[in-house]
Amino acid sequence: MLHHIPEDICIGILEQLKTHNKQIIVMEDNNVSLLTPLWCMFTNLQFLNHPLNFKTCHEWKTLFSKYFKIKNMKIDNTACAFNLFPLKDNVYIR
Predict the structure, then answer these.
(1) pLDDT at 75
(2) Residue 79 in contact with residue 28, Cβ under 8 Å?
């Protein structure tokens, strides 16, 4: 659900996760349609003010690679999954 979190808060969460975890698995929607944000707004009317920060799998990979080493990545038509390991001072920790 990272696509429903403002970008600055998402980055803060990633910063916290990398200091407390040795491995993180993330799955996000593989947004390839311009209709996805509209559908999301329509089906989630109770959350009118939630952000819609949908990204492509490549955009998620770019964001995650700033904070983690991406060991495995799987992409299909509906989602992308990342197996992430923290970086500390740009050094891969395992």
Answers:
(1) 86
(2) yes
